[in-house]
Every structure is written in C-alpha cells, then in structure tokens.
Amino acid sequence: MIGALFLASALTVVDGGMLRVNGEPIRLIGIEAPDIVGRCRKGKACPEDSSRRSKESLKHALRDPITIVPVARDAYGRTVAIVYAGGLNMSCEQLRKGMAVYRPAWDMGRRLARECRFLTRR
C-alpha cells in the first residue's frame, strides 16, 4: 500500500481519526479524536456531539486525490498512516480545526510534528 492512491469511493470514515480503505482500518498518525459513542471503551468519556463533529470534519475534508503512506501497525493491528487528501495532511487538518489532540507518543519519527508547522510552536 505504500504510496498508493485511493479513490474516495473506496473509503469510509469511521471516526475523526480512523478510515477504512478497502475494508482495512487506517489510523491517522499522531492524533486522538473522540471515540464514537457506540465504540467507546469502558471508563472513557465519549461525548456524542464532539465525536460526531470530529467524524464529520474528517469526512468533509476528504477529497481526491487521496494518498495513504503507511508508517506502522498499532497494538490492534491497524495500519497507522499519514493520509493526504487534496494535498493536505488530514492529521494536521483535524488538529488545526480542534477536532483531535496531538499525541507525541503516537507520532512515529515525529513525522506529524514536522509537517504540522503549528505544532513546532508549542
């Protein structure tokens, strides 16, 4: 899948930080978005409004061409990737809009910190 291009029709948005492409779950690198209430882990706060807004934000930001650059697999076996849509880094966009929070421990190789210029000012 490295450097692969996907059409938006082969892609669905699961939540504000995860996509499904051809059935494969893809986590956006370096961010945590609110979990969808139905998928919320026990003991974790998952406000319905913020999870819905985060998911809709990602959905509306997606436009062709979509490029997925796999980086690693997470503890659940999902592909962690840098996802570009219309030339924009979707993790950076979700952070910029306040729809996710930056998790340095999830930013393998500080790739996201290098691309999201506003993160270097923190």
TrEMBL record:
| Listed InterPro entries | SNase_OB-fold_sf (IPR035437), Staphylococal_nuclease_OB-fold (IPR016071)
Which stretches are transmembrane? Answer: none
Per the database record, which ranges form the TNase-like domain? 26-105
Q: Which SUPFAM superfamilies match?
A: Staphylococcal nuclease
| Name of this protein | TNase-like domain-containing protein
Provide the species name: Sphingobium fuliginis (strain ATCC 27551)
